[in-house]
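Project outcomes to date are best conveyed with an example. Our students and postdoctoral researchers have been running inverse folding experiments weekly, and each run begins with a structure described purely in tokens. The record below, which covers 367 residues, was selected by the lab manager from last quarter's runs and is presented without edits.
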């Protein structure tokens, strides 16, 4: 059976520490090489299949059990080295240069991930690793950093563990501190990835401040119910992490606050416009971000969510009013004003729910 090459370890030569400027230049060059050039080449060959970013699901097993997560299954075997190698080679031939490892928890098999990172970076890929950090020991960080890992998406939802939300920062503080420190040696970037649920609204701000103090970015998403029925997921009903209608004002405030922090210079992956879009989805999207129209399984999956939206869209302020000037200008240039978007969303929402909703009451609630 074909296997991935064994990476050299320990390295023949230690990597030198970079100055801030060298670090920025290093990452800019990598971004041009792995994102900009492949994109431009794809535009030159519009009829070819040239993926810009690929997800390599190396693992479905996980050492944690976040109550919202249906993306892990401890009964499913992980990817083999042969599949990983063939996938990377195939993607390379297709012009792709950005590879996101995905799971489950990829670091359940650190040697495998080390091999993937070394092989993929050797073929010119930007490699992105999401992890809950529990198994990210300093030696693992050294190996992956030396192998050329480009970015670490450290997923944490709270400062201290909470029932249902085990991805917390305090149990991995030492790993976090080492990971942040070694950026200047290995050149990777780190950001905190935070899932906004009904249980961690205060933690979201606390983690944002911790990331800001550590001079790293944050990335946010709204907790979602499954888009399709997932046989292995036993928490589709009565899930304590899902955002309920009564949580919407607090989540709405939180999103506003995050947009304000973004405007004040906090490093964030999400733009102000993205926060405004999250508000729209929170209010109109059946608690579903990025799935419009809502999935037919949504009602089934979240039980009360769709029913509770009937006739009461708590919109007392147009979301576009909260956009910063730059985002408003961008949106206006794109030919869709915030108000037009809201109206379009409302029409989609009404069409999809026309059987069980009274459009007039919604119209008056939003006028
Ligand atoms: C499935 S995990 C895999 C990688 C790693 N174990 C981790 O937690 O980042 C990838 C991302 O999916 C997100 N995720 C899982 N279930 C979700 C849900 N129900 N709603 C929103 N995001 C979810 C997690 O927060 C995590 O950041
Ligand atoms: S750590 Fe990641 S894969 Fe594991 S349960 Fe949590 S979100 Fe899912």
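After processing, the design step wrote out the following sequence:
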């Amino acid at each position: 059976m074909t296997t991935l090459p064994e990476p050299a370890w320990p390295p023949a030569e230690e990597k030198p520490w970079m100055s801030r400027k060298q670090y920025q230049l290093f990452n800019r060059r990598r971004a041009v090489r792995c994102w900009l050039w492949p994109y431009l080449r794809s535009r030159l060959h519009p009829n070819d299949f040239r993926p810009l970013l690929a997800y390599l699901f190396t693992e479905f097993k996980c050492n944690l059990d976040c109550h919202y997560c249906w993306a892990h299954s401890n009964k499913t075997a992980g990817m083999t080295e042969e599949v990983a190698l063939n996938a990377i080679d195939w993607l390379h031939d297709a012009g792709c240069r950005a590879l996101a490892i995905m799971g489950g928890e990829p670091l359940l098999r650190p040697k495998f991930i080390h091999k993937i990172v070394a092989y993929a970076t050797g073929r010119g890929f930007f490699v992105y690793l999401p992890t809950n950090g529990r198994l990210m020991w300093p030696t693992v960080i050294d190996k992956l950093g030396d192998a050329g890992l480009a970015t670490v998406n450290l997923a944490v939802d709270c400062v201290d563990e909470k029932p249902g939300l085990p991805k917390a920062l305090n149990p991995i503080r030492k790993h976090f501190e080492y990971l942040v420190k070694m950026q200047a040696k290995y050149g990777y970037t780190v950001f905190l990835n935070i899932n906004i649920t009904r249980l961690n609204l205060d933690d979201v701000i606390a983690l944002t401040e911790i990331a800001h103090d550590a001079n790293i970015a944050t990335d946010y998403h709204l907790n979602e119910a499954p888009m399709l029925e997932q046989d292995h997921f036993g928490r589709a009903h009565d899930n304590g992490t899902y955002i309920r209608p009564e949580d919407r004002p607090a989540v709405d405030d939180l999103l506003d606050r995050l947009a304000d922090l973004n405007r004040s210079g906090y490093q964030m992956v999400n733009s102000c416009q993205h926060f405004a879009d999250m508000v729209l989805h929170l209010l109109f999207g059946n608690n579903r971000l990025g799935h419009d129209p809502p999935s037919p399984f949504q009602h089934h999956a979240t039980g009360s969510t769709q029913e509770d939206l009937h006739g009461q869209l708590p919109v007392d302020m147009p979301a576009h009013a909260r956009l910063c000037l730059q985002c408003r200008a961008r949106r206006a240039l794109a030919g869709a004003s915030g108000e037009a978007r809201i109206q379009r969303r409302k029409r989609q929402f009404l069409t999809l729910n026309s059987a069980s909703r009274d459009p007039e009451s919604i119209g008056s609630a939003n006028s």
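The radius of gyration is 22 Å. The first helix runs from residue 20 to 44. The training component of this project remains on track.
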